[in-house]
Amino acid sequence: MIPTPPAMFHWRQLSREPEYPLNVVDTDIETDVAVIGAGLTGLAAARHFALAGARVVLLDAGQIGQAASGRNNGQVIPHYGRHTPQEIEARFGAHRGAIFNRMVGGSADGVAKLVRDHALACDFVQNGWIQACHATSALARVRSVYEGWKDRGHQAEWLDRDAMTAHIGSSAFYGGWKAGSGGYLNPYAFCQGMARIAGDAGVDIRQDSAVLNLERVNRRWLLTCPGGSVLAREVLVTANLPQSAFWPGIGKVSVPVRVYQVSTGALAPEWQARILPGREGVSDTSRAICAFRYDSQGGLAMVGQHTLWHDAADRGRRAVAERLRKVFPGLPLQMADRYWEGTIAAVTDRLPRLMALAPGLNFAGIYSGRGVALSVAWGAMAAGLALGEVAERDAPVPVTRLRTVPFHGIGVQYARYMHPRLRAQDRKEIARSES
């Protein structure tokens, strides 16, 4: 089998972390645990299994850092995509909800500790993450988020409009809050570093080794790959799975959402002094995805989404430049420099999943765009659950059977074409705020 050439994109170009050596499944292997998916969840889970003394094989259909874990905006966010801490405790009860809140609220510091303890060369900047209100209608909701985290002892600071303007360098936002433990990093480099420490713990990492079939054989699981097989007592699935068919229904547990990223060239020093002078990461509350942060060269990396993907690179570079000029009037930017794309796995409630698919076969993951920090904690927790270190009642969410997205096909089409509607809603809210 000829390995797939890895795609070159901005985070890979900037990475200072050595790439993990390529090794494929080219024979028949026996092991204690097989983990499917070498993203951040799988890397953290495999390492946890190995540190507990298990033999572990970690499989990926592609190469480390080439999927969502390595291609995202790299923001390390200790907060949910949709819910307040109060809502989590109301939904899951005081016991489980408090566990979930502690995991999410502490997830950024967990990443910081890994980076620090293992000298991961991923350009981690932990100066906080800001959630900025794109319209006055978002203020009450975001205030509730801030109060929820502050009441639970986490680093949370309310920013009125003047304070927000000072932090971001723009008057385009109406207030919001700052999570002090948040930040951002080079996600591709972080994946490579996580692979390094997983390998150091004894994990056998096999890339370009897609699982084509999974079947029960004498109380163990046989995973068939193009070049060989893996026989394991326990299997943990952590991959994004929109096209997978190795288990019935597994491709319908989430909806793929395609997004793009653009990075400008390094901004002039006077503009860097004005825009995000404190070097926080930012996500706003608009329905159409908007998040931005500096890269290690002093350029702004920003997320966007197309409805139609023809001429995507040129349109994306122009769209981001236009957006940045609106947020930062006078910014001398005609077209952003670098463009790349990726796909995230999402679900309607934006809550990650734990699923028991069969005896010894479990699933963990799906972060709906908020996975850089949480996925590391989630993977280690899922491994602890399988090992019996974590009781099921102490898991952050209930463990369910296979849970697919209802009307999956409709959801896929909605995710593809929802952008114009969301953008129109945002424009209406901004217009009301300005009137």
UniProtKB/TrEMBL annotation:
Domain FAD dependent oxidoreductase: 32-383
UniProt xrefs under SUPFAM superfamilies: FAD/NAD(P)-binding domain
GO MF term set: oxidoreductase activity
Keywords assigned by UniProt, alphabetized: Oxidoreductase
A GO cellular component annotation in the UniProt record: cytoplasm
InterPro entries xrefs: FAD-dep_OxRdtase (IPR006076), FAD/NAD-bd_sf (IPR036188)
Superkingdom, taxonomy of origin: Bacteria
Protein name: FAD-binding oxidoreductase
Organism this protein belongs to: Acetobacter garciniae
